[in-house]
Amino acid sequence: MKINENFLKIESSYLFSNIAKKVKEYSLANPEKAKDIIRLGIGDVTRPLAPACIEAMHKAVDEMSKGETFRGYPPEYGYDFLLEAIRDNDYKSRGVELDISEIFVSDGAKSDTGNIGDIFSLQNKVAICDPVYPVYVDTNVMSGRSGDKADGKWSNIYYMPCIAENKFLPQLPKEKVDLIYLCFPNNPTGMAITKAELKKWVDYANENGAVILYDAAYEAFITEDDVPHTIYEIEGAKTCAVEFKSFSKTAGFTGVRCGYTVVPHELKTADGTELNKLWARRQATKFNGVSYITQRAAEAVYSPQGKQQVREIIEYYRHNAKTIYEGLKACGFEVYGAKNSPYVWLKTPENMGSWEFFDMLLDKLQVVGTPGEGFGPNGEGYFRLTAFGSKENTEKAVERIKNYFAK
Ligand SMILES: *Cc1c(COP(=O)(O)O)cnc(C)c1O
User: Fold this and answer.
1) Are 243 and 231 in contact (CB under 8 A)?
2) I want to staple 162 with a disulfide (CB 3.0 to 4.6 A). Which of 49, 154, 168, 400 is the partner?
3) 16 CA from centroid of ligand 1 (Å)
4) pLDDT tens by residue, 154-204
5) Atom 2 (ligand 1): residue with closest C-alpha?
6) Which backbone phi and psi does 298 adopt, to 5 degrees?
7) Digit-coded pLDDT (tens) for 370-401
8) Which fold has domain 5-48+307-405?
9) What is the 8-class DSSP label of residue 179?
């Protein structure tokens, strides 16, 4: 047999495995200090599920226990009750009309953003922000769309630097690209895009026959009015954009697993093939649906109590983001993000490398963050802290940083 050699091109250890390894080594060498470690690194939530979701899950479990209400395989694209709740609450309420056949419920946005490449030719040129959520790059490498790596970059990927000089927003490509991955509010920079800025991308994609793959996993953290909650708030987006959303960061579903992808019927190739049909075929073949219990939990996110409870959880994280942002700013750090996002992106002091800064924070302050370099070459010299820790730990970590850097 022969393997898919594209897998050999990818570095075997993923960013977060590297971090985990470093923290483990430090803990073994410094067992006393290790007790004080505060983790503001990985983008995983920590607050428990909303009571409304738990209640819905209990009820669904009971239904599974009786012959009359037992459910087997779920519909491949999601139960109507959830599709309708998504359509009404996430779209109709924002003036966007969708048919439920345009929404595909899944086990999360990581799978969907990773799998969407299945429906596109390997000949497409991919455009990716730098720094970026690593899934978009790695899945294109695995499928053989990336070319080869030289100087930290893949030869067939078009990189869009998101740096301080352009307010961490990508610039329109200067050469022909076909698939454009955008994520707003952004992981890792925490920066958002305004409706006016996103309109430029929608126009560009429509004019050039490109498709925007829009990851809106952090939509729930948006606070500013001119920031779109869905790309379909932008006129013309239905003919050029696929949108990915997730209950992970919105409602703490990282361990429950549920998200969805929108592929409008109007999104077609030049010769009229609907991408919706291809994604439907792909999902029906390689995916067998999300459990009934999980979909009932996701539905409960949209109930009046669910909405209120989820809002409170988001508020909790938002407060942490503010604590980090303002604390670091007060002691002289150059900081970004936080306003519409659970992430704070900071410039390392004195031009330290991001792994160097990682080691220092761990060694001197027992605070774990994420080195920007792990998200792409332009992340070097930056560092990500997340708001997903507890309020107490977040405050403690910020105090340590303040005390250390104030001297
Ligand atoms: C966390 C995250 C997701 C969500 O992934 P799930 O698989 O739904 O948990 C998607 N995109 C980005 C950029 C993320 O950071």
Assistant:
1) yes
2) 168
3) 14
4) 999 999 999 999 999 999 999 999 999 999 999 999 999 999 999 999 999
5) 217
6) -65, -40
7) 999 999 999 999 999 999 999 999 999 999 99
8) Aspartate Aminotransferase, domain 1 (3.90.1150)
9) E
Q: Whose CA is nearest to atom 4 of ligand 1?
A: 109
pTM more than 0.90: yes
DSSP 274: B
Here the tokens at position 50 are: 């909303």
Reported confidence tier of residue 228, pLDDT bands at 50, 70, 90: very high
Q: How many helices (H) and strands (E) does the chain have?
A: 14, 15
Centre of ligand 1 to C-alpha 133, Å, is 9
Report the DSSP pairing between strands 241-246 and 259-262. antiparallel
Q: Is 76 exposed, middle or buried (0-12, 13-18, 19+ CB in 10 A)?
A: middle
Coil/strand/helix, residue 175: coil
Residue 306 CA to residue 174 CA, distance in Å, equals: 45
What number does the ligand 1 atom closest to the CA of 183 have? 13
* Distance (Å, whole) CA 197 – CA 112: 25
Pocket probe for ligand 1: among 105, 107, 110, the residue whose CB has the most ligand atoms within 8 Å is: 110
What pLDDT is attached to residue 359?
97
Looking at the CA of residue 253, tell me the nearest atom of ligand 1. 9
**Class assignment of domain 54-304?**
alpha beta
Q: Which amino acid is at 403?
A: N
Q: Which two tokens mark 204?
A: 């560009």
Residue 394's Cβ-side half-sphere holds a number of Cα atoms within 13 Å equal to: 24
Select from 10, 11, 35, 8 the least CA-distant residue to 23. 35
Q: Which residues line ligand 1 (CB under 6 A)?
A: 43, 108-110, 133, 183, 187, 215, 217, 246, 248-249, 254, 259
Dihedral in degrees, nearest 10, Cα atoms 63, 65, 66, 72: 80
* Cα–Cα distance measured from residue 10 to residue 141, given in angstroms and rounded to the nearest whole number: 7
Q: Give the domain ranges of the chain.
A: 5-48+307-405, 54-304
